[in-house]
Amino acid sequence: MAVQVRVICSSEDVVESGPGYRFSVDRYGRETPAFVIRFRGKVHAYLNECGHVPAQLDWQRGEFFDDSKLYLICSVHGALYAPETGRCLGGRCQGIGLKPLPVKETDGQIFLEYETDNG
Ligand code: FES
Question: Which atom number of ligand 1 is nearest to the Cα of residue 57?
Answer without folding.
Answer: 2
